[in-house]
Specification:
By secondary structure, the protein is α+β, with helices and mostly antiparallel strands. Helix content is 61%, strand content 10%. It is built from eight helices and five strands, in the order H-H-H-H-H-H-E-H-E-E-E-H-E. It has a five-stranded antiparallel beta sheet.
Length: 213
Amino acid sequence: MIFWLIASAAVIWLAGAAGWLWVCAGLRGDGPRGRAGRFAVQLSGLALLAGTLSGSPFIALAGAAFPPTAPLLLTRILSAPALATALLPWVLGAMLGAGLVARVVLRRRGAQPVWSLGIAFAAGAVAMIVSGEVISRNAMCKEAAAHGVSTVARNSFAWSLRHPRRAFNVEVHGMIRPEAGTGIWSYTRMAWDPLPETIARNIDPPSRSLSCR
């Protein structure tokens, strides 16, 4: 039963990818197919970028071939609703601003304004990484202060996008060592989770140090 489900999913994906690539192939044409092709190519580029940033080459390539695969990456951000809510206005603002400016510039240069979509996607990705770095630094310091700690060992937000925390990980997003014990950072809770010392001794502390003073 499982085999048939996997086989059916593979056939559906291959059919979808073939259809999507056919749409992309029309990007140089005129009329509706040409516009659809240019739009599709940019969505494929976005899926490839999202997969690359998340450290998942397989999903990056699968998403580029058939972008409906890419929303699998959203589960990582959506599992941290507080973080997603904080990132959203920055990402949307960057996309809207860059998209509108690009559209005006492209029109003045006689280029296809539909390419402004790709520029908007790229701006949104940059805004997510930059704002995520600032937001995570501030959140870590704020929560660390509640534990009486002024220095945090952390990995960058870009690193954390590529390394989702799992139970068996020996690398963590961030770590503090207050007198009460070791804490590791949770983007899901946007707080420090206590860690038993029997497990903490097996964790590799992040090499970067953040002073919260």
